[in-house]
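ok new one. same drill as before - structure tokens go in, u give me an amino acid for every spot. 428 of them this time. try not to just spam alanines like last time pls lmao
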């Protein structure tokens, strides 16, 4: 009986001890789980890039809108969207009966002025020629009469006054003839001037008529669908859009925000990702910065020349850009090929934090260098493999007891990519 009581006491003691141990373990677990959870990653080595993002569209360097010079009706359209065109090729014809009338009128007036200005056919000049011919005949007769009166006056057969009258009459006829010659020369100049005016008017009317035939100014393609036949157009109405879309004449035209445009310079390196070439990182350089901002979007246009990537094998097809492709651009402001880097979210409040002996610790001597969207450079204070906190610590005080969960650096940096740049693969 005594042994049975002792056994029961031992069991009771074991159970009580187990309860205390379980309570202690539960307390420890509760204490452990109640501590804030922070996410950490490690310091790695890699390129450090400071950049800013922008969206862009592949566009020809220059587009050529085809517009009407005359109002009229579209009677012919000889090309369609996507067709290749050559310089001088007829694209469409816009007809206006009034333009044809003006050309016919100008040609008729030109022919008339040619007839009036030609010596053989001009009625005005022929009238002067007839008067000059008659004047010459009368002057010849007057000079013969004058000579006869001179001879007769010398022999006393005629009065001196008759001789003088004959001489005066000859002089009057000579003077009249000279006046006719001057008038004819003046009229000749006037007729030639009228001819030149008529020639200019005919050339202008002919040029205006020729403008009804729309021709391609470039070697390129039709970008949009032309207006249909039968459309009535006013002066300067749009008919179609042309562009040279050869690879060497295409650029990535980016829309850079106003706050970033001061950081853009010609020749600047740009990393790109086009949605049409998912997973293919591309590079380019800034070739032109447009001076005026878009009034609505407050962005500046910047042209970036895309560099064709080197094929990994001879069978790889070459990069073929097409107008209208879109993508994301990262304009590189500063860069280092090798540096100590951590995901960008590790920089908090101008500094970095770590977990030491289970407590949140600010790394006093850690300083940031190049700051990018995904990564930030550690200029000093840490080494490769050191632990750094990447989850927000604004609600925690320094020295707080915390527990950790780890995340790979590349995965953490990927969280910083702009959502719109889903195809961008980073700089690594």
């Amino acid at each position: 009986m005594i042994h049975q009581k002792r056994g029961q006491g031992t069991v009771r003691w074991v159970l009580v001890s187990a309860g205390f141990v379980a309570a202690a373990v539960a307390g420890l677990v509760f204490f452990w789980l109640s501590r804030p959870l922070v996410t950490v990653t490690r310091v790695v080595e890699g390129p450090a890039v400071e950049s800013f993002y922008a969206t862009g569209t592949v566009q020809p360097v220059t587009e050529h809108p085809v517009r009407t010079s005359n109002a009229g009706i579209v009677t012919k359209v000889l090309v369609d969207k996507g067709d290749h065109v050559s310089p001088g090729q007829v694209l469409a014809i816009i007809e206006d009966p009034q333009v044809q009338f003006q050309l016919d009128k100008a040609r008729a007036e030109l022919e008339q002025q040619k007839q009036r200005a030609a010596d053989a056919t001009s009625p005005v000049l022929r009238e002067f020629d007839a008067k000059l011919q008659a004047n010459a005949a009368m002057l010849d007769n007057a000079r013969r009469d004058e000579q006869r009166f001179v001879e007769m006056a010398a022999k006393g057969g005629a009065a001196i006054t008759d001789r003088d009258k004959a001489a005066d009459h000859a002089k009057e006829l000579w003077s009249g003839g000279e006046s006719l010659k001057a008038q004819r020369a003046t009229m000749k100049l006037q007729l030639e001037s009228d001819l030149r005016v008529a020639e200019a008017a005919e050339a202008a009317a002919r040029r205006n008529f020729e403008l009804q035939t729309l021709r391609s100014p470039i070697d390129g393609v039709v970008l949009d669908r032309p207006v249909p036949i039968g459309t009535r157009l006013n002066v300067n109405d749009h008919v179609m859009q042309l562009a040279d879309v050869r690879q060497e004449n295409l650029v990535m035209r980016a829309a850079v925000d106003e706050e970033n445009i001061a950081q853009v310079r010609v020749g600047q390196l740009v990393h790109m990702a086009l949605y049409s070439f998912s997973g293919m990182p591309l590079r380019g350089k800034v070739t032109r910065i447009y001076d005026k901002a878009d009034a609505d979007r407050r962005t500046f246009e910047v042209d970036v020349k895309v560099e064709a990537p080197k094929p990994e094998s001879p069978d790889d097809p070459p990069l073929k850009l097409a107008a209208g492709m879109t993508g994301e651009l990262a304009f590189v402001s500063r860069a280092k090929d090798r540096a100590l880097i951590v995901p960008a979210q590790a920089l908090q409040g101008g500094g970095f934090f770590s977990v030491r002996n289970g407590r949140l610790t600010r790394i006093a001597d850690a300083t940031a260098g190049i700051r990018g969207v995904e990564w930030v450079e550690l200029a000093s204070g840490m080494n490769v493999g050191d632990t750094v906190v990447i989850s927000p610590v604004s609600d925690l005080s320094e020295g707080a007891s915390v527990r950790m969960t780890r995340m790979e650096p590349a995965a953490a940096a990927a969280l910083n990519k702009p959502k719109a740049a889903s195809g961008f693969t980073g700089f690594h």
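The CA atoms of residues 114 and 121 lie 9 Å apart. and btw The two ends are 81 Å apart (CA to CA).
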